[in-house]
Design goal:
The protein has helices at residues 9-15, 24-30, 43-46, 48-61, 75-80, 87-102, 124-145, 158-170, 193-202, 216-229, 273-286, 299-308, 332-344, and strands at 18-19, 65-67, 108-114, 149-155, 175-179, 207-211, 233-237, 290-291. By secondary structure, it is of the alpha/beta class. The structure holds zinc ion (ZN).
Length: 345
Protein backbone atom coordinates (compact mmCIF):
# COMPACT_ATOMS: atom_id res chain seq x y z
CA UNK A 1 0.00 0.00 0.00
CA UNK A 2 1.30 3.42 -0.83
CA UNK A 3 2.34 5.47 2.19
CA UNK A 4 1.43 8.78 0.57
CA UNK A 5 -2.26 8.06 1.09
CA UNK A 6 -3.77 9.98 3.91
CA UNK A 7 -6.90 7.91 4.53
CA UNK A 8 -8.50 4.67 3.42
CA UNK A 9 -11.76 4.33 1.55
CA UNK A 10 -13.96 3.97 4.64
CA UNK A 11 -12.41 7.02 6.32
CA UNK A 12 -12.98 9.04 3.19
CA UNK A 13 -16.58 7.88 2.85
CA UNK A 14 -17.23 8.78 6.48
CA UNK A 15 -16.27 12.34 5.76
CA UNK A 16 -17.96 12.76 2.40
CA UNK A 17 -18.51 11.61 -1.14
CA UNK A 18 -15.78 9.66 -2.86
CA UNK A 19 -15.57 10.13 -6.59
CA UNK A 20 -14.55 7.26 -8.82
CA UNK A 21 -14.08 6.79 -12.54
CA UNK A 22 -14.16 3.70 -14.68
CA UNK A 23 -14.76 2.72 -18.26
CA UNK A 24 -11.10 1.92 -18.87
CA UNK A 25 -11.83 -0.97 -21.22
CA UNK A 26 -14.25 1.03 -23.37
CA UNK A 27 -11.99 4.07 -23.56
CA UNK A 28 -8.85 2.06 -24.32
CA UNK A 29 -10.78 0.24 -27.03
CA UNK A 30 -11.66 3.62 -28.57
CA UNK A 31 -8.00 4.59 -28.35
CA UNK A 32 -6.98 1.44 -30.21
CA UNK A 33 -5.43 -0.66 -27.47
CA UNK A 34 -8.14 -3.22 -26.68
CA UNK A 35 -10.08 -5.47 -29.02
CA UNK A 36 -13.85 -5.04 -28.91
CA UNK A 37 -15.54 -8.40 -28.54
CA UNK A 38 -13.31 -10.20 -26.05
CA UNK A 39 -12.52 -6.87 -24.30
CA UNK A 40 -9.52 -8.42 -22.54
CA UNK A 41 -7.15 -5.73 -21.16
CA UNK A 42 -4.09 -6.97 -23.02
CA UNK A 43 -3.03 -3.33 -23.10
CA UNK A 44 -1.76 -3.75 -19.53
CA UNK A 45 1.16 -5.81 -20.83
CA UNK A 46 1.35 -4.58 -24.42
CA UNK A 47 1.08 -0.79 -23.86
CA UNK A 48 1.40 -0.07 -20.13
CA UNK A 49 2.02 3.62 -20.80
CA UNK A 50 -1.44 3.90 -22.38
CA UNK A 51 -3.00 2.55 -19.21
CA UNK A 52 -0.99 4.90 -17.02
CA UNK A 53 -1.95 7.85 -19.18
CA UNK A 54 -5.66 7.12 -18.77
CA UNK A 55 -5.25 6.62 -15.02
CA UNK A 56 -3.48 9.97 -14.92
CA UNK A 57 -6.23 11.70 -16.90
CA UNK A 58 -8.90 10.36 -14.55
CA UNK A 59 -6.77 11.38 -11.56
CA UNK A 60 -6.34 14.92 -12.87
CA UNK A 61 -10.07 15.07 -13.62
CA UNK A 62 -10.99 14.25 -10.03
CA UNK A 63 -11.11 10.50 -9.56
CA UNK A 64 -9.95 9.58 -6.07
CA UNK A 65 -9.65 5.91 -6.94
CA UNK A 66 -7.36 4.28 -9.46
CA UNK A 67 -9.10 1.06 -10.39
CA UNK A 68 -6.58 -1.59 -11.42
CA UNK A 69 -7.38 -2.68 -14.95
CA UNK A 70 -8.00 -6.33 -14.17
CA UNK A 71 -11.54 -6.29 -15.55
CA UNK A 72 -11.87 -9.48 -17.61
CA UNK A 73 -8.26 -10.34 -16.72
CA UNK A 74 -9.43 -13.62 -15.30
CA UNK A 75 -8.64 -17.19 -16.30
CA UNK A 76 -11.82 -17.76 -18.28
CA UNK A 77 -11.40 -14.68 -20.48
CA UNK A 78 -7.66 -15.02 -21.03
CA UNK A 79 -8.24 -18.55 -22.24
CA UNK A 80 -10.52 -17.07 -24.92
CA UNK A 81 -7.72 -14.97 -26.36
CA UNK A 82 -4.97 -17.53 -25.86
CA UNK A 83 -3.14 -15.58 -23.16
CA UNK A 84 -3.79 -17.79 -20.17
CA UNK A 85 -0.05 -17.90 -19.51
CA UNK A 86 -0.03 -14.12 -19.07
CA UNK A 87 -2.67 -14.21 -16.36
CA UNK A 88 -0.47 -13.55 -13.33
CA UNK A 89 1.75 -11.04 -15.12
CA UNK A 90 -1.26 -9.10 -16.41
CA UNK A 91 -2.93 -8.95 -13.01
CA UNK A 92 0.19 -7.92 -11.13
CA UNK A 93 1.16 -5.31 -13.69
CA UNK A 94 -2.34 -3.77 -13.69
CA UNK A 95 -2.16 -3.19 -9.95
CA UNK A 96 1.38 -1.85 -10.22
CA UNK A 97 0.35 0.68 -12.88
CA UNK A 98 -2.58 1.86 -10.77
CA UNK A 99 -0.28 2.30 -7.79
CA UNK A 100 2.30 4.24 -9.76
CA UNK A 101 -0.26 6.81 -10.84
CA UNK A 102 -2.13 6.87 -7.52
CA UNK A 103 1.11 8.04 -5.91
CA UNK A 104 1.17 11.03 -8.25
CA UNK A 105 -1.87 12.29 -6.34
CA UNK A 106 -3.54 11.15 -3.19
CA UNK A 107 -5.63 8.44 -4.80
CA UNK A 108 -6.58 5.03 -3.54
CA UNK A 109 -6.00 1.83 -5.47
CA UNK A 110 -8.87 -0.57 -5.94
CA UNK A 111 -8.41 -4.17 -6.92
CA UNK A 112 -11.05 -5.17 -9.43
CA UNK A 113 -12.92 -8.41 -10.01
CA UNK A 114 -16.00 -8.87 -12.13
CA UNK A 115 -18.53 -11.30 -13.51
CA UNK A 116 -16.68 -14.40 -14.69
CA UNK A 117 -19.16 -15.99 -17.12
CA UNK A 118 -18.30 -19.22 -15.27
CA UNK A 119 -21.03 -18.98 -12.64
CA UNK A 120 -24.05 -21.18 -13.25
CA UNK A 121 -26.93 -21.03 -10.77
CA UNK A 122 -28.16 -24.34 -12.18
CA UNK A 123 -24.91 -25.90 -11.07
CA UNK A 124 -24.10 -23.56 -8.23
CA UNK A 125 -21.92 -25.86 -6.17
CA UNK A 126 -19.53 -26.88 -8.91
CA UNK A 127 -19.41 -23.47 -10.64
CA UNK A 128 -18.98 -21.60 -7.35
CA UNK A 129 -15.79 -23.51 -6.74
CA UNK A 130 -14.40 -22.41 -10.10
CA UNK A 131 -15.44 -18.79 -9.59
CA UNK A 132 -14.02 -18.67 -6.08
CA UNK A 133 -10.68 -20.01 -7.29
CA UNK A 134 -10.56 -17.34 -10.01
CA UNK A 135 -11.28 -14.54 -7.53
CA UNK A 136 -8.86 -15.87 -4.95
CA UNK A 137 -5.96 -16.03 -7.37
CA UNK A 138 -6.64 -12.56 -8.77
CA UNK A 139 -7.00 -11.02 -5.34
CA UNK A 140 -3.91 -12.76 -3.91
CA UNK A 141 -1.79 -11.11 -6.62
CA UNK A 142 -3.52 -7.79 -6.13
CA UNK A 143 -2.93 -7.82 -2.39
CA UNK A 144 0.75 -8.59 -2.89
CA UNK A 145 1.09 -5.65 -5.26
CA UNK A 146 -0.85 -3.37 -2.89
CA UNK A 147 -4.50 -2.37 -2.92
CA UNK A 148 -6.67 -0.36 -0.52
CA UNK A 149 -10.00 -2.05 -1.21
CA UNK A 150 -11.72 -4.17 -3.82
CA UNK A 151 -14.44 -3.36 -6.32
CA UNK A 152 -16.45 -6.38 -7.43
CA UNK A 153 -18.60 -5.19 -10.28
CA UNK A 154 -21.05 -5.82 -13.10
CA UNK A 155 -22.37 -8.78 -11.15
CA UNK A 156 -25.19 -10.42 -13.09
CA UNK A 157 -25.85 -12.95 -10.35
CA UNK A 158 -26.27 -12.28 -6.66
CA UNK A 159 -24.81 -15.75 -6.10
CA UNK A 160 -21.60 -14.78 -7.85
CA UNK A 161 -21.46 -11.41 -6.08
CA UNK A 162 -21.66 -13.17 -2.72
CA UNK A 163 -18.69 -15.36 -3.65
CA UNK A 164 -16.74 -12.21 -4.54
CA UNK A 165 -17.74 -10.59 -1.27
CA UNK A 166 -16.57 -13.61 0.70
CA UNK A 167 -13.24 -13.67 -1.13
CA UNK A 168 -12.69 -9.98 -0.36
CA UNK A 169 -13.70 -10.28 3.28
CA UNK A 170 -11.32 -13.22 3.75
CA UNK A 171 -8.57 -10.72 3.02
CA UNK A 172 -9.97 -8.20 5.52
CA UNK A 173 -10.34 -5.56 2.86
CA UNK A 174 -13.23 -3.11 2.42
CA UNK A 175 -15.60 -4.44 -0.23
CA UNK A 176 -17.54 -2.48 -2.80
CA UNK A 177 -19.94 -4.81 -4.61
CA UNK A 178 -22.05 -3.45 -7.42
CA UNK A 179 -24.55 -5.15 -9.65
CA UNK A 180 -25.07 -5.08 -13.38
CA UNK A 181 -28.66 -4.14 -14.17
CA UNK A 182 -29.18 -5.46 -17.68
CA UNK A 183 -32.57 -6.91 -16.90
CA UNK A 184 -35.65 -4.89 -16.01
CA UNK A 185 -35.59 -5.30 -12.23
CA UNK A 186 -33.83 -8.50 -11.25
CA UNK A 187 -30.45 -10.19 -11.22
CA UNK A 188 -30.12 -13.18 -13.49
CA UNK A 189 -30.68 -15.46 -10.51
CA UNK A 190 -33.98 -13.76 -9.77
CA UNK A 191 -33.31 -11.24 -7.00
CA UNK A 192 -34.76 -7.80 -7.22
CA UNK A 193 -31.83 -5.35 -7.45
CA UNK A 194 -32.82 -3.65 -4.22
CA UNK A 195 -33.22 -6.92 -2.36
CA UNK A 196 -29.91 -8.17 -3.75
CA UNK A 197 -28.12 -5.06 -2.45
CA UNK A 198 -29.74 -5.53 0.91
CA UNK A 199 -28.51 -9.13 1.07
CA UNK A 200 -25.00 -8.02 0.11
CA UNK A 201 -25.08 -5.37 2.83
CA UNK A 202 -26.31 -7.93 5.35
CA UNK A 203 -23.38 -10.14 4.37
CA UNK A 204 -20.91 -7.39 5.17
CA UNK A 205 -20.42 -5.42 1.97
CA UNK A 206 -19.21 -1.93 2.88
CA UNK A 207 -20.53 -0.33 -0.31
CA UNK A 208 -23.31 -1.66 -2.55
CA UNK A 209 -25.04 -0.32 -5.62
CA UNK A 210 -25.06 -0.44 -9.40
CA UNK A 211 -22.49 0.08 -12.12
CA UNK A 212 -22.59 -0.02 -15.91
CA UNK A 213 -25.51 -0.84 -18.22
CA UNK A 214 -27.78 2.07 -17.31
CA UNK A 215 -27.44 5.76 -18.00
CA UNK A 216 -28.27 8.38 -15.35
CA UNK A 217 -31.99 8.54 -16.11
CA UNK A 218 -32.71 4.85 -15.63
CA UNK A 219 -30.12 4.14 -12.94
CA UNK A 220 -31.03 6.85 -10.45
CA UNK A 221 -34.57 5.63 -9.62
CA UNK A 222 -33.21 2.21 -8.65
CA UNK A 223 -30.33 3.75 -6.71
CA UNK A 224 -32.79 5.86 -4.78
CA UNK A 225 -34.60 2.71 -3.65
CA UNK A 226 -31.32 0.99 -2.78
CA UNK A 227 -30.36 4.04 -0.71
CA UNK A 228 -33.61 3.76 1.23
CA UNK A 229 -33.14 0.02 1.80
CA UNK A 230 -29.59 -0.20 3.14
CA UNK A 231 -27.62 1.56 5.85
CA UNK A 232 -24.17 0.92 4.35
CA UNK A 233 -22.55 3.14 1.72
CA UNK A 234 -24.10 3.26 -1.76
CA UNK A 235 -22.31 3.51 -5.11
CA UNK A 236 -23.65 4.61 -8.48
CA UNK A 237 -21.53 4.41 -11.61
CA UNK A 238 -23.76 4.79 -14.68
CA UNK A 239 -22.75 4.77 -18.31
CA UNK A 240 -22.87 8.23 -19.93
CA UNK A 241 -25.56 7.26 -22.41
CA UNK A 242 -29.14 8.48 -22.77
CA UNK A 243 -31.05 5.41 -21.72
CA UNK A 244 -34.77 5.85 -21.08
CA UNK A 245 -37.90 4.00 -20.00
CA UNK A 246 -38.22 2.30 -23.37
CA UNK A 247 -34.52 1.48 -23.65
CA UNK A 248 -33.37 1.25 -20.03
CA UNK A 249 -29.87 -0.09 -20.74
CA UNK A 250 -27.20 0.81 -23.27
CA UNK A 251 -27.37 -2.76 -24.52
CA UNK A 252 -31.01 -2.14 -25.50
CA UNK A 253 -30.51 1.17 -27.37
CA UNK A 254 -31.43 1.03 -31.08
CA UNK A 255 -30.06 3.18 -33.88
CA UNK A 256 -32.25 5.06 -36.35
CA UNK A 257 -31.83 2.06 -38.63
CA UNK A 258 -33.12 -0.14 -35.80
CA UNK A 259 -29.79 -1.85 -35.17
CA UNK A 260 -28.52 -2.65 -31.71
CA UNK A 261 -26.21 0.26 -30.89
CA UNK A 262 -24.15 -1.64 -28.34
CA UNK A 263 -21.24 -1.73 -28.32
CA UNK A 264 -19.88 0.06 -31.40
CA UNK A 265 -22.68 2.42 -32.51
CA UNK A 266 -23.28 4.19 -29.24
CA UNK A 267 -21.89 7.65 -30.00
CA UNK A 268 -25.24 9.26 -30.94
CA UNK A 269 -26.54 8.39 -27.49
CA UNK A 270 -23.74 9.94 -25.44
CA UNK A 271 -24.70 12.33 -22.66
CA UNK A 272 -23.00 15.67 -22.64
CA UNK A 273 -20.83 16.81 -19.74
CA UNK A 274 -23.58 18.95 -18.23
CA UNK A 275 -25.89 15.96 -18.07
CA UNK A 276 -23.24 13.97 -16.22
CA UNK A 277 -22.67 16.92 -13.89
CA UNK A 278 -26.41 16.94 -13.24
CA UNK A 279 -26.26 13.23 -12.48
CA UNK A 280 -23.53 13.86 -9.88
CA UNK A 281 -25.63 16.57 -8.22
CA UNK A 282 -28.74 14.37 -8.13
CA UNK A 283 -26.78 11.41 -6.77
CA UNK A 284 -25.40 13.66 -4.05
CA UNK A 285 -28.92 14.82 -3.16
CA UNK A 286 -30.18 11.25 -2.95
CA UNK A 287 -27.37 10.40 -0.58
CA UNK A 288 -25.09 8.35 -2.81
CA UNK A 289 -21.63 8.02 -1.24
CA UNK A 290 -19.51 6.78 -4.14
CA UNK A 291 -20.23 8.62 -7.37
CA UNK A 292 -18.57 7.57 -10.61
CA UNK A 293 -18.97 6.66 -14.22
CA UNK A 294 -18.60 3.45 -16.21
CA UNK A 295 -18.25 2.41 -19.86
CA UNK A 296 -18.16 5.45 -22.14
CA UNK A 297 -16.60 7.49 -19.35
CA UNK A 298 -13.91 10.00 -20.28
CA UNK A 299 -11.95 12.69 -18.41
CA UNK A 300 -14.19 15.62 -19.42
CA UNK A 301 -17.16 13.93 -17.76
CA UNK A 302 -15.18 13.15 -14.62
CA UNK A 303 -14.05 16.76 -14.29
CA UNK A 304 -17.56 18.13 -14.88
CA UNK A 305 -18.87 15.77 -12.19
CA UNK A 306 -16.12 16.76 -9.75
CA UNK A 307 -16.87 20.45 -10.29
CA UNK A 308 -20.60 19.77 -9.87
CA UNK A 309 -19.71 18.33 -6.47
CA UNK A 310 -18.00 21.60 -5.64
CA UNK A 311 -14.45 20.45 -6.20
CA UNK A 312 -11.56 22.05 -7.94
CA UNK A 313 -9.32 19.43 -9.48
CA UNK A 314 -6.00 19.50 -11.31
CA UNK A 315 -7.70 19.55 -14.70
CA UNK A 316 -9.91 22.46 -13.59
CA UNK A 317 -7.01 24.66 -14.67
CA UNK A 318 -8.23 23.99 -18.20
CA UNK A 319 -11.97 23.94 -17.58
CA UNK A 320 -13.94 25.84 -20.18
CA UNK A 321 -13.26 29.58 -19.98
CA UNK A 322 -16.20 30.58 -22.06
CA UNK A 323 -16.21 34.04 -20.53
CA UNK A 324 -13.23 34.61 -22.76
CA UNK A 325 -15.12 33.38 -25.77
CA UNK A 326 -16.17 36.28 -28.01
CA UNK A 327 -19.68 34.91 -28.41
CA UNK A 328 -20.44 32.85 -25.35
CA UNK A 329 -19.78 35.09 -22.37
CA UNK A 330 -19.61 33.98 -18.73
CA UNK A 331 -21.86 31.15 -17.46
CA UNK A 332 -20.71 28.21 -19.54
CA UNK A 333 -23.79 26.05 -19.58
CA UNK A 334 -26.28 28.91 -19.85
CA UNK A 335 -24.31 30.77 -22.46
CA UNK A 336 -23.82 27.64 -24.44
CA UNK A 337 -27.58 27.06 -24.50
CA UNK A 338 -28.23 30.68 -25.54
CA UNK A 339 -25.61 30.42 -28.21
CA UNK A 340 -27.22 27.30 -29.64
CA UNK A 341 -30.71 28.80 -29.48
CA UNK A 342 -29.53 31.87 -31.41
CA UNK A 343 -27.58 29.84 -33.85
CA UNK A 344 -30.49 27.52 -34.63
CA UNK A 345 -33.05 30.31 -35.02
ZN1 LIG B 1 -19.18 -0.44 -17.67
Amino acid sequence: MSNTKTRGILDRLRSGIVQGAEGYVFELERRGYIKAGPYVPEVVLDFPEAVKQLHREFLRAGSEVMVALTYYAHREKLKDVGRENDLERMNRQAVRLANEVAREGDALVAGNICNTWAYDPGNAKESSRIVRAMYEEQLAWAVEEGIDFVISETNDYLGEALIALEAIKQLNLPAMVTLASVQQSQTRDGYDYIEACKILADHGADIVGLNCDRGPETMLPIIEQIRAAVSCYVAAQPVPYKTNARYPTFESLRTDGDEQAFPLLLEPFLCNRFEMAEFARKAQTIGVNYIGICCGGAPHYVRAMAEALGRTVAASKYSPAMELHPVLGSDVEEKHKEFLADWKS
